[in-house]
Design goal:
The chain is α/β, with parallel strands linked by helices. The chain is built from 11 helices and 7 strands. The chain has 2 domains: 83 residues, Orthogonal Bundle (Arc Repressor Mutant, subunit A); 105 residues, Rhodanese-like domain (Oxidized Rhodanese, domain 1, 3-Layer(aba) Sandwich), CATH 3.40.250. Helix 3 packs across helix 4 and helix 5 crosses helix 6. The longest helix has 18 residues.
Length: 220
């Protein structure tokens, strides 16, 4: 008969499996991408700067801890997060790090100061202005993430294509860029490019996850 001590050790070992799986910065980055939409190994490798082999290894570790799921699509294997709880855990981890670790707080403050981020209170007002055509909302994430889900009235302009898209943007209104949330730098880089080219631009700290968590509707 298994003792209570043995059972408790086994139980906490399972808890530790999740913790050890999340101890890799690259696995956290993979989760950040998969929260946006499902992706194949090659796309994930490109997005994280890893080799396909290394990416596959990290995905297998995440899969072993049941944090991601996979499915076959022809010759490709597509990965996705294993439910909303995984996304919540990841965001909670980020927010806890910002609250407890001074370096994270410092970096986030620098990002906010540089790009004039909108505060959470601006969500409904932003939606109202976008609907009326008084601001332009840019989704600067990759196109597959935009297709999976995006903010209402947002236009998809992935960051690498933004410079060639500038001629289509109005100079008489504010441009609001967003990406994967408060810890993503795509929108920050977009705002910097827009301002250098003479546009009024700011960054929305929300990504799709934060927008939905606030009870706001999304399009897909």
């Amino acid at each position: 008969m298994t003792s209570s001590r043995e059972l408790k050790d086994e139980l906490f070992g399972q808890f530790a499996l999740i913790g050890s799986t999340l101890s890799s910065p690259k696995r956290l980055e993979l989760l950040d991408l998969l929260i946006q939409c499902e992706k194949d190994v090659e796309t994930l490798a490109s997005g994280t700067g890893m080799s396909v082999a290394n990416t596959s290894h990290h995905l297998q570790v995440l899969h072993g801890a049941r944090l991601v799921e996979s499915r076959k699509d022809g010759v490709h294997v597509l990965y996705r997060i294993a439910g909303h709880r995984v996304a919540s855990l990841f965001r909670d981890l980020q927010q806890l790090a910002e609250e407890k670790l001074g370096d994270v707080e410092r970096i986030v403050n620098v990002l906010s100061q540089e790009d004039g981020s909108l505060t959470p209170m601006n969500r409904k007002e932003l939606l109202k202005l976008a609907k009326a055509g008084r601001v332009t909302v840019l989704d600067v994430r990759p196109e597959d993430e935009y297709r999976a889900a995006h903010l209402p009235y947002a236009v998809s302009v992935p960051l690498p294509k933004l410079k060639s898209y500038l001629r289509h943007l109005p100079r008489t209104q504010t441009i609001v860029a967003y990406c994967r949330g408060p810890y993503c730098v795509l929108a920050r880089d977009a705002v910097r490019l827009l301002r250098n080219c003479g546009f009024r631009a700011t960054r929305l700290r929300d990504g799709i996850y934060e927008w939905q968590e606030a009870g706001m509707a999304i399009d897909s």
